[in-house]
Amino acid sequence: MNLERLGSITSELSSSLLKSIVVPQGGLRGWFARHRTAAQRGRNGRPDGRPECDLDVAVAEYPAGPVILMGGTPVPDEAVVAALHMAGGRSARVAVVPAAATANPEEAAAAAARPFTRFGMKRVEPLLLDSREKAADPAWVARLREYDAIVLCGDSPARGLHVLHATAAANALREHVQGGRLLVGMDAAASLFGSRLFPHPAEEGVTVGLGILPALLIDAGFSGAWRFSRLVRAMSAPEASAMLGAGLDAGTALLVTDGEAKVLGESTVTVLDPWERTAPTEDRPGGLKVHLLTDGYRLNFRMRRATPPEPQPAEGK
After folding, report:
1. Cα–Cα distance for residue pair 236/101, rounded to 1 Å
2. Residue 74, preceding bond cis, omega within 30 degrees?
3. Contact by Cβ (8 Å): 163, 106
4. Sheet containing 93-100, strands listed edge to edge, beginning at the edge strand earlier in sequence
5. Exposed (0-12), middle (13-18) or buried (19+): which is 295, by Cβ within 10 Å?
6. Parallel, antiparallel, or unpaired for β 287-293 and 269-278?
7. Is residue 244 within a helix (H) or strand (E), and if so which, with residue range?
8. Whole-angstrom Cα distance, residue 34 to residue 41?
């Protein structure tokens, strides 16, 4: 037997096999999740089954358009500059929608518009879609579809959910961002975009969000030990086993494009990942993986992987 020839044949077969392997979109974890049996789909959690795609970051379908989540004032300049470019420049038409405002929608819209007009955006307009009647009205929805970018603002997730949930306006927001156009959530309104949210800032309960960014529980205005503990408790529930929880501090934003987020601003985004949670033992409580992300960090939702910003070259080099 010609051993040299045999080695050559083995090498050729190995090369051909490697070239034929195609890793599916979303990774192998996502492929196995999509092809699990119906019985497995009926059970929630590991290892027998996983939740459906709106509660599973590995297989969730994220919109084509950019989404910017702003945790609260002060709004990071970097986030406003990113919005300016992604909306189409200073002449882009921007609607400011105070759907989550409780007291004075006009004042809420005016305050939300200031960061954008300060950077020279010329066509930032209030669109006072602040009731379920307007959110279901074809004329108001048609106006919403006219804009290059939409900014949702307000101080109450519960109010925003009451106005928008299961309405034609909510469908228009999804179509807007799925079509590649910019959607911004400011302060409490940013919490609406996930699959789940806390409707009340001082209460534990979790409810269904708009699902624009599926498999996420978003808590804007995140600060203090109690808010952190509340998010931990929510992400420890069986339903959240394949989700991610994100707490956005004031002064910080997340720029999300195609399932990857970049942190902008001077404060912190706290991300809780229950997928690799540890089981409690006699001498140690169970735990979740925690990412504390600062300016420039990126987080790939599907891979559950955080990466630091690229190092800047030293001056003079």
Report:
1. 30
2. yes
3. no
4. 123-126, 93-100, 149-154, 182-186, 67-70, 252-257, 260-265, 298-300, 305-307
5. middle
6. antiparallel
7. strand 244-248
8. 9
Give the model confidence (pLDDT) of 73-119 as tens digits. 899 999 999 999 999 999 999 999 999 999 899 999 999 999 999 99
Q: Do 254 and 231 form a contact (C-beta atoms < 8 A)?
A: no
Distance CA 54, CA 70 (A): 22
Amino acid, single-letter form, for residue 219:
D
Q: Residue 109 in contact with residue 130, Cβ under 8 Å?
A: no
Residue type, 201: P
- Predicted confidence at residue 33, as pLDDT, reads 44
Residue 276: per-residue pLDDT: 74
- Specify which residues 260 forms β-bridges with: 257, 300
pTM for this model (two decimals)? 0.82
| Residue 244 structure tokens | 């991610």
* Residue type for position 260: E
Distance (Å, whole) CA 272 – CA 201:
18
Distance CA 74, CA 80 (A): 11
Burial of 17 (0-12, 13-18, 19+ CB in 10 A): exposed
CB-based contact 220:68 (threshold 8 Å): no
- Between CA 180 and CA 98 the distance in angstroms is 22
Q: How far is CA 256 from CA 164, 184, 285, 291, in A?
A: 21, 10, 33, 17
For 62, phi then psi, to 5°, come to -90, 150
Six token digits for residue 193: 């975009």
Within 10 angstroms of residue 303's Cβ, the number of other Cβ atoms is 16
Structure tokens at 248: 């956005």
For the chain, what's the residue count? 317
Contact 76, 118 (CB under 8 A): no
